[in-house]
Design brief:
Strand content: under 5%
CATH topology of the largest domain: Annexin V, domain 1
Shape: elongated
Number of domains: 2
Distance between the termini: 46 Å
Order of helices and strands: HHHHHHEEHEHHHH
CATH superfamily of the largest domain: Arf GTPase activating protein
Largest sheet: 3 strands, antiparallel
Length: 182
């Protein structure tokens, strides 16, 4: 049955169903927005469903990584350039710098966050996300597409501008060359 179509059964909202909806909507702060939205649709409460969507209570980032995306990320991590952090070259990668389409370790991701967060006026904006624990949207995936993203193109770019040996993250990423990368 499509949203908006009703039959006799869906038009009847029992007191029990209504109380259940009220409990979901009002009672539990930790209620899963997906459950709220499903409950709203089950009782054909379009108004509540739209309200949930409008208030951004239901976000795509609350879903697990889709199996094809996870497989793609695993294949990307098999590449020798992507396996280790582009910044320290020592640790295995755990995060992606979406702005650059590169992979870094947790320690370097935290350093990027500390140095380049929005709390530092004038700093470049860097968004680091966990590779396997965060949802990926199409824009984020496009930043790492093979041939365009990943650590290999960044490595060659750094080498071209004599920055591959610069280990200080602040100095490297504040360089004129990297300000224009991507």
């Amino acid at each position: 049955m499509k949203l908006g179509q009703q039959n006799e059964k869906s038009m009847i909202m029992t007191e029990e169903t209504k109380e259940g909806m009220d409990d979901l909507l009002l009672g539990d702060e930790d209620a899963d927005p997906t459950d709220l939205l499903k409950a709203a649709f089950e009782v054909n409460d379009v108004k509540t469903a739209l309200k949930l969507l409008k208030e951004n209570a239901f976000k795509s980032s609350q879903f697990a990584i889709a199996p094809p995306v996870k497989t793609y990320l695993e294949v990307m991590m098999e590449d020798g350039f992507n396996r280790y952090c582009i910044d320290c070259k020592e640790n295995e990668v755990t995060h992606c710098l979406i702005s650059y389409g590169t992979f870094v370790c947790e320690k370097c991701a935290m350093t990027h966050h500390e140095l380049f967060s929005m709390q530092n006026p004038g700093a470049i904006s860097v968004y680091a996300k966990n590779i396997y624990n965060d949802h990926w949207d199409n824009y984020q995936l496009s930043s790492i597409v093979e041939g365009f993203g990943g650590n290999e193109p960044m490595y060659h770019f750094l080498k071209e501008y004599d920055l591959e040996e610069v280990t200080d993250i602040k100095n490297r990423y504040n360089s004129r060359a990297l300000r224009w990368y991507k």
